[in-house]
Predict the 3D structure of the following.
Amino acid sequence: MPEQDRLTSLDCNCRAVRQAARTITQFYDRYLAPSGLRISQFGVLAILASKGPLTINELAAEFIIDRTTLGRNILPLQRDGFIRVKPSPFDRRSKELHLTETGKKRFHEARKYWLEAQKGFEARFGGSRAAELRGLLHAVVDSDIRPAAATLN
């Protein structure tokens, strides 16, 4: 019997990565809970804090997610005054996301919980294994299995 015929859903790379992603997300969310942010929201604030204002399309590309999913992530941040959506000065049809002063403050407060999560993950999983995992995951993102940007909606 060819090896491909012996494969089961337990051998699915996508399933394993998604299970790991959910496990790690839940781990980080527990650490971030005192900040009132989820790791997905913290990530948006972190990108805006480091890169400055970005259009919705640019931010979606950073996370490799569609605009609809990004929209669900930014609505609570906008509602709570952490980000502001403004028309782009370069293209009025585009909207830019700006980190507010309140958002900067919340990001810096939450960062200490994120650092604890980083340390906690590495203490449990191992620092060198965590670095190797990040490297492997970055290699997947950079590989040719990633669809062309035009096919991401």
About this structure: Strands lie at 54-55, 83-87, 95-99. The mean pLDDT is 91.
